[in-house]
Amino acid sequence: MNELDFLKQHTPARIGVGRTGTRPLTKDSLSFRIDHAAAVDAVYGEVSQDLLDQMGLFTVETRYGSKERYLKRPDQGRLLSEEGEKLIIEKCILRPQVQIVISDGLSASAIQKNILDVYPTLLDSLSVYNLSAGTAFFLKGGRVGCMDAIGELLQPEAFVLLIGERPGLVSAESLSAYMCYRPQKGTKESDRMVISNIHQRGTPPVEAAAHIGTMIHKMLEQKTSGVGLDI
User: Fold this and answer.
1) I want to staple 166 with a disulfide (CB 3.0 to 4.6 A). Which of 9, 34, 44, 106 is the partner?
2) What is the pTM of this model?
3) 168-206: per-residue pLDDT in tens?
4) Are 203 and 176 in contact (CB under 8 A)?
């Protein structure tokens, strides 16, 4: 086996693709178009209401307005709509140990494909450490910084945001889990932690969820997160 064949066996990246003259082979061109279409569908898709109903999640919206505005104005995905703030105050437990929020982010496909494995396992992992979760909900049009706005309202000890990652040509179904101790307005990015690349061909969803529970346990023990956490 030559070095190129060895590398191709160990990465899903497009390396060593064939060409005919200056053009890629038909099979490689079609593969690219399929993966690009999946990425577009992930960004512009919607998490099904049936799935949200199955999980018992109500929906809160940010100020994203529309998908086009969401892509052009990331700041609007960090802010809650007025109606969203009212729903959170009305329906959520105040000052929970752990607040879990699920958001489509940049990939609705990530939620559709992974959340039924991640969410129940995360709850199980928290229960192993005798930790309780507050009222989970679905946040439409969310960005990572929305943790701070929600943290201001609910004042959780620890926060977990399960959010769809920006899709690429390797996977359009990748989920990230962002964690933070007592998030609030002005929280620094260095105070957040993340487990990314959660999908069947990356970090297995069940394994990732179990690890999230362990990280939350350490955060609450040490009363910190991010670069200050001793892991």
Assistant:
1) 106
2) 0.89
3) 767 788 999 999 999 999 999 999 999 999 998 889 999
4) no
